[in-house]
Amino acid sequence: MLDLHYRRNRNWFTAMGVLFIVMAGIILIRNLLIWGPEFVADFFTSPEITNEKISVGMIGIGCFLIFLGTRKEVNENI
Predict the structure, then answer these.
(1) Segments making up each domain of the chain, as ranges
(2) Average pLDDT, whole number, for the chain?
């Protein structure tokens, strides 16, 4: 019975990955609304560590966590 109800993507890697991506999206949209596209583009290209660059890193980490969460687990019961 349990083999029929395999729950895919029900782990904390996927949940945390989605959370990272949603939070990064909120930060980027908020900054676009407050500062406008010109300033946000300047923040992306400046040599300083800015909120926008950290948001891009958060999106990358979120994608990596989702990748880890969607891997199939090999169950070797011999």
Answers:
(1) 12-70
(2) 86
